[in-house]
Write a sequence for this structure.
């Protein structure tokens, strides 16, 4: 088979450049199953592209998260995703002989990576239309300034795990050095360095630990305290917005329940971190915002707890059973199938009541949650116990319907977190089934 022509190679290379990272291994595997010169050429092009991307990741690695949206949707410095590839092409065009140095892991490779970042910043400032056509001048300068800070960020990032843990004196000195270097890089250098560090953190709460260290060193002549305060303010503002969303969000189905649980988890983590690392003055704007967010969430959860108790009324129907004379008492009604909508709502509300147990203390409503959970558990267990007694006594008109009712009760107990009570109901229901089957087998056939 003939090899690819120059035009075909160029077109294929252009297509491979546009492939996402996850597609390249699949494309390489596909080429490996093919034979011939063209398949070999395809494998070569894919391997060259993979090598080029690894080198680009080494050079632009400190800034890589800036070209992706944050997973938690928080506001942060960001740039279009296609820029690194274009920046890389213009930065390496004049010095291709430096690229093999990036395959090593030593000081020389880091020097080469810093030099390529500098080259990209120069091209971006001198010929922005070649890299980022139509971009506003301030956005171009922001990205160029971040490229200028790449050497500082490259040396700082290995210390990030220590700064979010229990940093030693030497690690704190590295933080102060990074802030001084960023400050000397020009106006806004410290703010941009913090944005770069923030982009590398999947969890915003971890950034609060670094910001708290900067604030604690603010008594010294160390830059960064004002910039750290701005980022703290952004995180607390995000907390306030999430609390408002939680207060306004309804809870009708599983999808809404998952979104609400995710938002509650994020807020609980942020509040826990604030309580641990940020000493807020009671009269400060931050303290007021935190208290308001906590109160909003607690009140909304209280409403959900009340709704959970009401939701059980629809899935635990009762009927009045005569006792003596005119005296009656409520007993489980097992003749109707559970209403699907009512059962779904009860599942969502009881799941939330059980899942917020680890975080309810943070919001200040654990006592109410526990009281609600105990009351719900008692109601479910009592209703299931009496329903199983009816089943054993043969008082149900439709055994299949009765079992579905009792099975729903066991499911709700499990969702609520009452695992032992749920297992007990399921075990008793299984025994009741066995007893019913045994008694039917023992009964003589009708004449």
């Amino acid at each position: 088979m003939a090899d690819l022509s120059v035009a075909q190679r160029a077109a294929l290379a252009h297509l491979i450049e546009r492939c996402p990272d996850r597609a390249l291994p699949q494309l390489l595997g596909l080429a490996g199953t093919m034979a011939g010169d063209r398949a070999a050429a395809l494998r070569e092009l894919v391997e060259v592209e993979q090598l080029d991307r690894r080198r680009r990741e080494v050079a632009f690695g400190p800034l890589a998260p800036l070209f992706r949206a944050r997973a938690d949707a928080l506001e942060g410095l960001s740039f279009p995703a296609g820029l690194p590839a274009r920046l890389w092409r213009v930065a390496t065009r004049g010095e291709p002989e430096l690229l093999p140095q990036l395959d090593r892991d030593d000081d020389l490779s880091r020097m080469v990576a810093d030099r390529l970042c500098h080259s990209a910043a120069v091209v971006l400032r001198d010929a922005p239309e070649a890299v980022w056509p139509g971009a506003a001048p301030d956005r171009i300068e922001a990205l160029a300034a971040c490229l200028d800070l790449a050497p500082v960020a490259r040396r700082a990032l290995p210390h990030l795990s220590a700064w979010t843990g229990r940093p030693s004196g030497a690690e704190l000195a590295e933080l102060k050095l990074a802030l001084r270097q960023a400050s000397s890089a020009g106006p806004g250098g410290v703010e941009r360095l913090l944005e770069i560090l923030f982009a590398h953190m999947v969890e915003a709460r971890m950034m609060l630990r670094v910001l708290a260290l900067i604030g604690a060193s603010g008594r010294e002549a160390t830059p960064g305290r004002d910039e750290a305060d701005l980022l703290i303010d952004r995180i607390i503002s995000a907390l306030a917005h999430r609390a408002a969303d939680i207060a306004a969000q309804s809870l009708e189905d599983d999808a809404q329940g998952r979104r609400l649980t995710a938002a509650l988890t994020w807020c609980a983590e942020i509040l826990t971190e604030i309580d641990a690392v940020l000493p807020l003055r009671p009269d400060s704007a931050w303290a007021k915002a935190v208290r308001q967010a906590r109160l909003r969430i607690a009140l909304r959860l209280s409403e959900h707890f009340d709704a959970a108790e009401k939701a059980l009324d629809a899935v635990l129907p009762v009927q009045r059973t005569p006792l003596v004379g005119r005296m009656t008492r409520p007993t489980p009604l097992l003749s109707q199938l559970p209403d699907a909508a009512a059962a779904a709502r009860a599942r969502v509300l009881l799941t939330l009541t059980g899942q917020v147990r680890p975080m309810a203390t943070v919001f200040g409503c654990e006592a109410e949650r526990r009281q609600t959970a105990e009351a719900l558990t008692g109601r479910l267990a009592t209703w299931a116990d009496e329903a199983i007694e009816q089943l054993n006594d043969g008082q149900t008109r439709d055994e299949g319907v009765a079992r579905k009712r009792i099975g729903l009760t066991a499911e709700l107990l499990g969702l609520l977190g009452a695992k032992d009570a749920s297992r007990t109901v399921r075990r008793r229901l299984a025994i009741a089934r066995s007893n019913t089957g045994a008694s039917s087998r023992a009964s003589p056939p009708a004449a």
Notes: The chain has three domains: 6-58, 61-231, 301-437. The chain is about 70% helix and 0% strand. The beta strands are 318-322, 328-332. The first strand starts at residue 318 and ends at 322.
